[in-house]
């Protein structure tokens, strides 16, 4: 186990940069923090690049998760370094560096999928991914203009679900074409005169479900390629539902 005590150490400076999307893309690495996320990564047998923590935090990881503290990938740090690495107000003093890992191609020949059309809020995206996991769906596809999947806020909101299901970032038009080419219908959640009320629509065993941007909704080009448009009836005076809430209602309708 290596020990680093200076915030000016080159490795620490490089890891601090991983809080920025630019450096995550350049290095192919990202940072997670906190015992729960690290536990879920280890349960999923994710190979990590580094495990960093204070002496007490690493000892806890050794006891709780059988982390091998003799590994060269384990680095003991102090609280000064913790405050440079953390993205939270109350850090748990433990971090893990992982490789960005996404399949370049996916057949989309079965299953239930949620497609996120340019969603901008990391909390919404993380919550939807967590809901997809809880409902037993197969995965989530994010459009390239959606919020960064490896944003620290997105990672925290997913609460470990990122290690349980398929997550891809790719063109939604191509995704929809692949799903429909395999006989899997694609529905868009949107307010539209041609949309059907969700309660009147029968669940199907396989589907793609498109959730639109928080402000603009589903992109017109994407909506035109969907088989059906569905909406959740509003019974009160609210103009609309939060994207993550609406997604959760629809996801469980088809779960």
TrEMBL record:
Gene3D superfamilies referenced in this protein's UniProt entry, alphabetically: 3.30.1330.30, 3.40.1280.10
Keywords: Methyltransferase, Transferase
Top-level taxon of origin: Bacteria
UniProt domain RNA 2-O ribose methyltransferase substrate binding: residue ranges: 31-104
Entries under SUPFAM superfamilies matching the protein: alpha/beta knot, L30e-like
GO molecular function per UniProt: methyltransferase activity
GO biological process: methylation
InterPro entries in the cross-refs: Alpha/beta_knot_MTases, MRM3-like_sub_bind, Ribosomal_eL30-like_sf, rRNA_Methyltransferase, SpoU_MeTrfase, SpoU_subst-bd, tRNA_m1G_MTases_N
Keyword Amino-acid biosynthesis in record: no
PANTHER family tied to this protein: RRNA METHYLTRANSFERASE 3 (PTHR43191), RRNA METHYLTRANSFERASE 3, MITOCHONDRIAL (PTHR43191:SF2)
Family: Belongs to the class IV-like SAM-binding methyltransferase superfamily. RNA methyltransferase TrmH family.
Protein name as catalogued: rRNA methyltransferase
């Amino acid at each position: 186990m290596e020990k680093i005590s200076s915030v000016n150490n080159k490795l620490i400076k490089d890891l601090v940069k991983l809080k920025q999307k630019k450096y995550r893309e350049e290095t192919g690495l990202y940072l997670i923090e906190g015992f729960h996320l690290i536990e879920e990564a280890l349960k999923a047998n994710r190979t990590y690049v580094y495990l960093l923590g204070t002496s007490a935090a690493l000892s806890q990881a050794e006891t709780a998760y059988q982390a091998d503290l003799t590994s060269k990938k384990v680095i003991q740090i102090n609280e000064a370094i913790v405050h440079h690495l953390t993205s939270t107000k109350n850090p748990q003093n433990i971090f893990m560096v992982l490789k960005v890992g996404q399949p370049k191609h996916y057949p989309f020949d079965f299953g239930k999928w949620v497609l996120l059309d340019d969603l901008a809020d990391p909390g919404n995206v993380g919550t939807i991914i967590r809901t997809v996991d809880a409902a037993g769906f197969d995965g989530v596809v994010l459009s390239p203009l959606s919020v960064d999947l490896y944003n620290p806020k997105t990672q925290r909101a997913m609460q470990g679900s990122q290690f349980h299901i398929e997550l891809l970032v790719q063109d939604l038009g191509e995704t929809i074409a692949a799903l429909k080419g395999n006989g899997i219908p694609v529905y868009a959640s949107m307010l539209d005169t041609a949309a059907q009320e969700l309660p009147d629509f029968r669940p199907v065993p396989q589907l793609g479900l498109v959730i639109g941007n928080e402000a603009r909704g589903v992109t017109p080009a994407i909506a035109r390629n969907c088989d059906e448009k569905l909406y959740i009836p509003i019974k009160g005076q609210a103009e609309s539902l939060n994207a993550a809430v609406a997604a959760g209602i629809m996801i469980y309708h088809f779960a």
